[in-house]
Design a protein that fits this description.
The chain is built from four helices and no strands. The chain has 73 residues and is mainly α. The protein is globular. The chain has helices at residues 12-20, 22-35, 39-48, 52-63.
């Protein structure tokens, strides 16, 4: 069975592709954090998602196979 990625239980390759595309990274990251119940973190993804978090997510997905989590609030 394929290893699960970080977006909605999708596979790692699909999650990596969604991370590389900026708008899907923003939407999927926002929805993932809301699904986890982290509202403040979801709002920060929208505010910082276009530049800082997008680059950090790409690096994190390549090396750690999960999106970056700045806050656990």
């Amino acid at each position: 069975m394929a290893k699960k990625g970080d977006y909605f239980g999708l596979g790692y390759i699909v999650s990596l592709i969604l991370t590389i595309i900026p708008i899907t990274n923003l939407i999927c990251g926002f929805l993932t954090r809301l699904q986890e119940g982290k509202i403040v973190a979801a709002i920060l993804r929208v505010v910082l998602g276009w530049n800082i978090i997008w680059i950090a997510d790409i690096i994190s997905m390549i090396f750690r196979k999960r999106i970056i989590r700045l806050l656990n609030i």
